[in-house]
Design goal:
The protein is mostly helical. The protein folds into two domains: 1-37 and 56-130, no CATH class; 163-268, no CATH class. It has nine helices and no strands. The protein has helices at residues 3-37, 58-88, 97-108, 117-153, 166-183, 185-196, 206-217, 224-235, 239-267. α4 packs antiparallel against α5. The chain is globular.
Amino acid sequence: MDARERSGISKRLTYFCRNCQGGARLATYELTKSFLLHTPSSSTRSHPTPLWIPTLSPIPASAISAIIGDLASSVIKVPREVITARLQTDHYGGQGATFAIRQIVGTEGISGLFRGFWSTTARDAPFMVILFTTYEKFKAYHHETTIRANKAIDEMWVPVEPRIPTFKSTLYGGISGALAGYLTTPFDVIKTKIMTQKLVHASSSMADHTKSICRQAVHTNESALRNSIRIYQAFFVGSVPRSSWWFCVCSMFFPIYETTKEYLSVEHR
């Protein structure tokens, strides 16, 4: 098998895993949120929400659902990211994904595929919380202003949840993604260092890697302000392209997400 074939297999594996992890995250997110909001959904009509689950407002419900959804997707996501990170850093001298999996399992055991699980969760759980709660805030603002405008025109108008236009969904989603991507860049830096360290028995502690980054950034002959800037730069390296990437991704994701939800809700009426 030549390098091109190995690359093609690695890409197909990555796409397949991304689709699976995305489906697991969103399905768990929507199911959990429907329970926390005590709103019926197509998956909960036959299983009503237990009375012991408290009813939450949309923002806390979105935050908790985002965390649970991310944990569900991490079972698929972390092994994929471990393999991808090793391949991108030429950890195995140009070998493919299959070789990487064999090497990881052979030298580190199954747990090697889940190296950095908690550091990845520490990065992605806040990302999902910021992403979805910010987007929900934008939606709440849109709904509030739309309802207020309709009431001003017609006092007899019955309030309903307004449909969010595609343009606004694109804008709100993009801003939410860029904000989440920027603020979680330090977690991404630490996660990458944990996943790509070469020593099998090296420390995987987030605290140890955080201290290491700070030690490398600080220069004893520099002022406190200059060292603070160096530490910021060390933890936020790549934050601009990361934010730009997530702006583009989320500006496409949320309109599709809203349209799909609307279509499915109509289909199940």
